[in-house]
Design a protein that fits this description.
The chain is an alpha+beta fold. Helix 8 runs parallel beside helix 10, helix 13 packs across helix 17 and helix 14 runs parallel beside helix 15.
């Protein structure tokens, strides 16, 4: 096989080119036309002139974002590549989309082209209306696994208005055209180069329909480009979206998705599909890596038989590398005749058909396996290629910074993960310790309660039988101490229930004044024993009945009055008020006792905390106020305290009226 490439400038010049290279019409001939001139009439005029001269050949063509002829890259020109096969046959076809989906017309053209001896498919689709990923899925559903596929999506010189594809007899702006190459001797392989890397923060696709992305991180997709790349970049979409695509990971490999269209609702059309929840980052090319990879790629394929190389490369590479794009293509063109075009999306097959963006794909073919091989000198070219420029410096800066940020993020994630795991372990240990403590306190309390009940029972019997006053006083001391111990046990049991979450509040109707009056009468006697003046004011506005837990309300009032009497010296005074305020039952207990220091007020409701100034001055284990606080919270109420040392304390409880 032989490949010849020229620029089409006129019919006369083209005929001279054919004659000088002894190119004759043949049914085993493939013609590819690449044109960044997008005028439809002019393109079809050129095609028709070529077909008149070479009517037996199979022809496919496309509008582009630039053409490749050997190691020369041009725009605003027409490149014609003619491949003359010796032992292979060529067949072309074109499918106009009509009402079919991209998937469906992918199936149709593959059915028309693929035969038993097909080795290679070259496909060109329009660049603006076709969903490239769906098209390839359709092709993949028909094409045998051993058939190689290459090609790309048409361009229109960055205008994003209308692209054109054609074969020798038809053309369309919405569809696909292609050729199949059938052979018994043809060897073919493809490769690609990428090196577009993700930069910036990772974002999440939050609304999408196939290749139309509405929102990323719940911001319109256009808004995301404006936020991170600036207002001018957003206005330049979709053109800027080719240079700054979105990078996603597919099967662990970075894949780019370039922008093809912008909609009025702020959504963007991409060359391939994205999915809800996809993690994406903006892409940016690494100049050094791109150029180095071209040399290594050339070296790796130079040991294979190659008679023709076709390049289908992303428009972003030409626009991003500028003059240096020649340095990417030149090593390849030194191996064999090279031609191609810059696309809006590249078709590639390794294990399966894939739509790529930002890549350079190459298709290498040969009909002679004994071609003389000359290894490409990789090391020499790596030493001498390139010169310093601002773009390379910026690319290196971005690459290094991104790598450092990725490493930092990874380290932070590991630290957070490690700390979280330790925190979870600590929490579990605390839960276990709390359970063990609660179980111990509950068991201990039950064990103490049983003999105490027996002791108090016998004390009551002794009080009934004993007539001696001195002995009765001593028995009373025993009973008082026993009652205090039972009270402590009850507090511990309540505390363990609260801590384990097993204490429940009863919901029942009760007479509001009843339980309050019972407690008041009981503590009037206790206050009188210390000559404490005990004043009670119960408002007439209190409802006759409430819904709630009367036992726990009595327990709260009992704890507050018990503390007030306990910490108020003889001849002091206690005031208690019960009223309705802001749809809440308000219970206020104020004493003229020893008061509480500001330091102790901060932890007044903590378990095992004592309101007294010294541990030995009063009895108890410091659970009363903690229990009160928790009971009030379980009733959706609140408790407040005001106190001054040596002046007294005021506790106020608010309970919702139901």
């Amino acid at each position: 096989m032989k490949t010849f490439t020229t620029y089409y400038t006129s019919q006369k010049e083209f005929e001279i080119f054919l004659n000088s290279n002894k190119i004759c019409d043949s049914k085993n001939m493939l013609i590819q036309i690449f044109s960044s001139i997008t005028d439809e009439k002019e393109i079809l005029f050129i095609r028709d002139n070529i077909v008149k001269i070479l009517p037996s050949a199979s022809l496919i063509g496309t509008t582009t974002d630039g053409e490749i002829n050997s190691n020369i890259v041009t725009t605003n020109s027409v490149v014609v590549t003619i491949t003359q096969f010796e032992f292979s046959s060529v067949k072309s076809s074109l499918v106009n989309a009509g009402d079919d989906s991209s998937y469906d017309y992918g199936k149709k053209i593959t059915t028309k082209l693929v035969g038993n001896k097909t080795k290679v498919l070259i496909m060109f689709s329009d660049g603006l209306n076709t969903n490239g990923e769906e098209l390839l899925l359709g092709i993949e559903s028909i094409k045998p696994d051993d058939v190689l596929m290459s090609g790309g999506m048409a361009g229109d010189a960055g205008a994003f208005e209308k692209t054109l594809i054609f074969n020798e007899s038809s053309h369309t702006s919405h569809g696909v055209c292609g050729v199949s190459i059938d052979s018994d001797v043809l060897t073919a392989f493809s490769r690609y180069s990428f090196y577009w890397q993700g930069i910036g923060k990772e974002m999440t696709v939050t609304k999408v329909e196939q290749n139309r992305v509405y929102t990323i991180d719940d911001i319109s997709t256009v808004g995301i480009y404006e936020k991170y790349l600036g207002e001018e970049a957003a206005e330049a979409l979709p053109a800027i979206g080719i240079e700054f695509p979105l990078i996603i990971k597919r099967d662990g490999v970075d894949v780019a998705r370039a922008v093809l269209g912008k909609e009025d609702d702020g959504s963007l059309i991409f060359a391939g599909n994205l999915k809800l929840g996809d993690k994406v980052r903006f892409g940016y090319g690494n100049v050094d890596k791109i150029l180095e990879d071209s040399i290594r790629l050339t070296h790796s394929i130079s040991a294979k038989p190659i008679e023709s190389i076709f390049i289908y490369s992303c428009m972003a590479r030409r626009r991003y590398l500028l003059d240096q794009i020649v340095k990417e293509i030149s090593p390849l063109s030194s191996l064999a005749p090279t031609s191609g075009f810059f696309t809006y999306g590249e078709f590639y097959k390794e294990s399966k058909c894939e739509l790529l963006n930002e890549t350079m794909t190459i298709l290498c073919m040969s009909e002679h396996s004994n071609r003389e091989i000359q290894l490409y000198n990789e090391e020499k070219n790596l030493e001498n290629y390139g010169s310093f420029n601002t773009q390379k410096a910026l690319s290196n800066l971005i690459t290094t910074t991104s790598e450092e940020l990725d490493t930092l993020n990874s380290n932070l994630e590991n630290i957070v993960k490690e700390k979280t795991e330790k925190l979870i372990e600590t929490i579990e240990d605390l839960k276990l310790a709390t359970r063990v403590k609660s179980d111990f306190l509950a068991n201990m309390s039950h064990e103490i309660r049983t003999p105490m009940n027996a002791i108090l029972g016998y004390v009551q019997v002794l009080q009934m039988l004993e007539k001696d006053e001195k002995k009765l006083k001593r028995i009373k001391v025993i009973k008082t101490a026993g009652d205090q111990l039972v009270s402590i046990i009850n507090d511990i049991l309540d505390f363990t229930k609260i801590e384990s979450g097993s204490l429940k509040i009863s919901i029942e109707n009760f007479e509001t004044i009843g339980p309050i009056s019972e407690i008041i009468e009981l503590f009037k006697v206790n206050a009188a024993e210390k000559s404490i003046i005990f004043n009670v004011d119960i408002s007439k506005d209190i409802p006759k009945t409430m819904v709630g837990d009367s036992t726990r309300i009595k327990q709260i009032i009992s704890n507050l009055l018990s503390n007030a009497i306990k910490f108020t010296p003889r001849s002091g005074n206690i005031q208690m008020r019960v009223l309705v305020e802001n749809s809440m039952l308000k219970i206020l207990v104020k004493d003229s006792g020893i008061g509480i220091s500001q330091q102790k007020l901060e932890n007044i409701f903590d378990a095992f905390n004592h309101t007294s100034t010294t541990r030995t001055s009063q009895s108890g284990v410091g659970l009363g106020l903690s229990i009160c606080d928790n009971l009030v919270k379980l009733m959706n109420g609140k408790i407040e305290i005001n106190s001054k040392l040596d002046e007294g304390s005021e506790f106020t409880v608010f309970l919702p009226l139901k």
